[in-house]
Amino acid sequence: MSSNSPEHRAAFIGVTTLFFAWGFITAMIDPLIPAVRAIFTLTTAESTLTQSAFFLSYAIVSLPAAALVARRGYAASILYALVGMFAGCMLMLVATHLARYTLVLIALFVIGAGITVLQVAANPLAAALGNPARSHFRLTLSQAFNSLGTVVAPFLGAMLMLRGGVFAGEATHSTAMRDASLRNVDLSFLVIAGLIAILAVFVAISRQRLSAAVPQDRAANASVLPALRSGWALLGGAAIFLYVGAEVSIGSVMIFYLNQPSVLDLSLARAGQLLSLYWLGAMVGRFAGSALLTRMPAAHLTLAATLTAALLCAIVMSSGGWLGAGAAIAIGICNSILFPTIFTLTLERSSAGPAATSGLLCMAIVGGAVLPRIAGAIADRNIDAAFAVPAVAYAMIAIFAYAAKNARPLHLGAARPTH
Question: Cα separation of 402 and 396, whole Å?
């Protein structure tokens, strides 16, 4: 089959839609945090358990997901992932009907597990659907649509989940107000379930076409043991852990930060909509970063981005008003290139093979479950000080980038996965 065939193009469009879907669903958790905090009367730290439940799935499911893709193929694995995500959305409806926060967390873990499988299958599939010489372009384009999902979701999620009910402005919350807010959460996840159902139908119809377009490589090795013996793989894993943790921590506390009278004094709903600018910066930055990487070594750009992000966090902690808000939102631009450059720098320097190294790096995404909990606990005492968590994380990633700048790559031209 020709690498530029209509079958390849149709399959690539479908796979790129999957990138949008998991970006959309991941970012929908940000407005869910203030929603569950108010509905269930939680502390900020307790409400960030939503992020922990979601991202914990990366540590637990990454290796089984790799084994599933190796055994069942890309198309079947994607279909299983979508069915699991749909089941998670249905469980969310049960959780809101019973008003049980524990069930909300379980539902988010199930959805996160599905997205983990989706990422493991969709990334190599997007790279393979077309001319090998244009694989980097296809991954970048798919990644941009992933970012588009993260821009749209907070705006829509804030409109749906942070209106009426317990957010009506009343000093006390009645049972009827709480029920109204739970129905808003229901509506949000019904929207997600509808999107997933449409994608599942598409994949089911296109299953044979996807399988024919990309023959399955059953020799894939899901073991990360060789990577555990590589110093650079471990350093890269730590950097991914810190990066994802920092990015998610900021998204988790941003709404509360912008809500402060000393910052912008916005309603939670309006602050949730403004959060979209943080993710928009990441999307725009990915296009600009791609251009910069043609002129600037990846290690240098990573070092500049992380140092700038740490500086912006310091401005947030020491300022308020529009300066602090602008600095917080601008961190999204710095985040834009970090995942792919950390991945690339690690793959080029790791003494382990690409499969083992990539598996370890994917597991390290669990940082999104850990650092937001720390940031949330600090935010309960001082919301500004919560930005110290990502500030320290960015400073440590800068050390990784500086070391990479001075280390000679072992594998030039290594495959470049996308987040």
Answer: 10
Answer yes or no: do 184 and 43 share one domain.
yes
Cβ atoms of 262 and 319 closer than 8 Å: no
Most confident of 7-11, 49-53, 212-216, 408-412: 49-53
**Residue 287: what pLDDT?**
79
Residue 407 Cα to chain centre, angstroms: 29
Q: What is the pLDDT confidence band of residue 403, given thresholds at 50, 70 and 90?
A: very high
Of 217, 246, 267, the residue that ends a domain is 217
Contact in structure between 39 and 182 (CB atoms under 8 Å): yes
The pTM assigned to this predicted structure is 0.79
Contact 158, 31 (CB under 8 A): yes
Range of the domain at 96: 1-217
Which DSSP letter does residue 401 get? H
More confident residue, 50 or 63: 50
Domain count, the chain: 2
Of all residues in the chain, the percent with pLDDT exceeding 70 is 87
224 pLDDT more than 80 = no
Which of 185, 217, 249 is a domain's end point?
A: 217
d(CA 104, CA 78): 24
Does residue 168 sit in the same domain as residue 290? no
CATH code, domain with 41: 1.20.1250.20
Both 10 and 94 in one domain: the answer is yes
Identify whether 307 is part of a domain: yes
Reference 12, options 94, 124, 98; nearest CA is 124
Would the pLDDT of 222 be above 90?
Answer: no
pLDDT digits (tens, 9 = 90+) for 239-297: 999 999 999 999 999 999 999 999 999 998 899 889 989 989 988 888 788 778 778 88
Assess whether 321 and 205 both reside in one domain. no
The secondary structure element, H or E, covering residue 354 is helix 354-363
In a domain, 377, yes or no: yes
Residue 106 carries which side chain, given as an amino acid letter?
Answer: I
Q: What is the dihedral of CA 306, 307, 312, 315, to 10 degrees?
A: 150
Position 328 in a domain: yes
CA distances (Å), 273 to each of 133, 158, 160, 262, 372, in order? 39, 6, 11, 19, 20
